[in-house]
Specification:
This protein is of the alpha+beta class and 205 residues long. 20% of the residues lie in helices and 22% in strands.
Length: 205
């Protein structure tokens, strides 16, 4: 009986085997794909923007062109345009007696006609080179710079002018017109022999 008890006590109760179920596989989550591209047509650019852009580019091009031309011009020789020294002033019959000032601005001369000749006075004061004014009411030339006075034939009579105003070379061409050459001047220095009666200093009438 004791042996039976020993056998029973030595026996270990074994729990019934339980079925082991493998873990369920994890669901694989696929990344969401990109949505299909949608083509969106852009609205055409307004004409106002196109015109504005063209104006801007034209302005830039004009500015660059001006800078380039200025750069080129810097290296070119500079010339001063001067009026011709020889020119025609019409026929002697076109002038009345006295002083005519219509060519003063263009050629700096006065055409002077007397009873026996036509001559041309170069409009330059012999003091410091200013241009005198013709005072018709006073029948004289008056220099505005220092007050030199000349009579109707350009002979000085007051002020610091040392001598009469010069006269330009004149002659008649084949047509009978007066040709003036201001590169050839006749003078009458004070106390010296004058040249107002030399050939070319006047045209006889």
């Amino acid at each position: 009986m004791e042996s039976n008890l020993k056998d029973e006590s030595s026996a270990v109760a074994v729990p019934p085997a339980t079925a082991v179920t493998p873990p369920a596989p994890k669901a694989v989550v696929k990344p969401a794909g990109r949505p299909p591209a949608v083509v969106v047509e852009s609205a055409p650019e307004p004409k106002v923007f196109k015109t504005r852009r063209m104006i801007i580019w034209a302005s830039v091009a004009a500015f660059l062109g001006y800078c380039f031309l200025s750069f080129i011009r810097f290296f070119l020789p500079r010339s001063i345009t001067e009026p011709a020294s020889t020119f025609k002033v019409g026929f002697p019959s076109d002038y009345a007696l006295g002083v005519d000032t219509k060519y003063q601005q263009q050629y700096r001369i006065w055409v002077d006609k007397t009873s026996d000749r036509v001559f041309v006075i170069y409009a330059r004061c012999t003091h410091l080179g200013c241009t005198p004014d013709w005072k018709a009411s006073e029948n004289k030339f008056k220099c505005p710079c220092h007050g030199s006075g000349y009579d109707s034939e350009g002979i000085n009579f007051e002020g610091p002018a040392p001598r009469p105003m010069d006269r330009a070379h004149v002659e008649l061409n084949a047509e009978g017109q007066i040709v003036v050459d201001v590169s050839r001047l006749f003078q009458k220095p004070k106390g010296e022999v004058g040249h107002f009666d030399d050939p070319g200093a006047y045209i006889p009438l």
